[in-house]
């Protein structure tokens, strides 16, 4: 069997994450040239993409902003505490550029791989596997293995993100209710458990199209929270000179992993791009990606910088938890942000369930489909709530997840995929693509090792009893 036939057979293994049901055909301006494409007219994936509920450009921007703009923005002042004002501001801009760049090269590679594989669209894991399948000859047999490994890693990543949402919602309600009902104070663990039923209910929404209103409402509410938070942040702002310009280097790993966690929405990117009515507008200038990330980076820098100036080393895992407890406006911001996390939950939960649903689609029987879906979603959320109750330290959990998962999926893997895909297609003058991607991979490894070490050390200290009081206030 020829190598070309092997490639064609291999491409059959890659199923689109957006291959729902047929609908209209969308025109495309995609132009991709490749040595592997011998057709007189190259296959245009956008013209073959059939999506039952396509998202508009504005809807896609809303989804992407919401995917990147969650609990992370409120953790930015705590990140600046671990870096200092100057280091934090520079680091945020650099991290934002890196996250945007890695998403760009990954989506570009995915679109070009769709041409080679003659697929209308690919998901994150499919793109990773296809990069090897259509990459250097010595790596082509690894395509299926890489796809499966990344698939399970992505699922685990976004299930861990559920824990952060649970901790955040529980902590916000505890802060408010403990003040107004001091005689019936409950533990943070109890509040985490109380989130179970509402989260299970909203997790039953299974279509991105129906999540657009939730994202729109969440984006509107987060603006309200942002305005209220900034009101208190800028109220009687202390002199900048009272804060550290550059913090202890030993704390930088916590800053880096928190920022990566905050900005990285790689798991939401491909589903959003795959279900766009006009996917050719995802990249480019201004484009969906650049527009969304410009908004995200700007907001993160503002909240992080001035949040730390206002609260200094007393800042908590979420800056809303530092707002005054004796003012209704401040307390309402905490509750509103908890609602935002609730409305955003289904979008984040869509990522792991997308992979699980694809596995279920391989079943020969469709009996009890709804029962199975409901059961799986309920079980996964129950496990996540239990883990959140065991480790309710918001700041350290965010840092750990950012270090372990998002540094790998958001930085290392896109750099590796881009390198493998372009290995035989040209790495640029002086191999600058290889050098650039190697640097990105090194940053990812540094964040992984150092961030994990510092975060785990902090969690162990909490479990030993030193962090009991701290857990309640976070």
Describe the structure in your own words.
With 474 residues, the chain is an all-alpha fold. The chain has a single domain, classed as Amino acid/polyamine transporter I (Up-down Bundle), CATH 1.20.1740. It has 18 helices and no strands. It has helices at 3-11, 45-48, 57-68, 71-81, 85-117, 124-133, 143-180, 188-194, 196-202, 208-234, 252-263, 266-274, 287-311, 328-360, 369-390, 394-422, 432-466, 468-473. Helix 7 packs across helix 8 (188-194) and helix 11 (252-263) crosses helix 17 (432-466). The radius of gyration is 22 Å and the shape is globular. The termini are far apart. The model is unreliable at 3-35 and 466-474 (pLDDT under 50).
What labels would you give this structure?
474 residues, mainly alpha, Amino acid/polyamine transporter I, 18 helices, globular, disordered C terminus
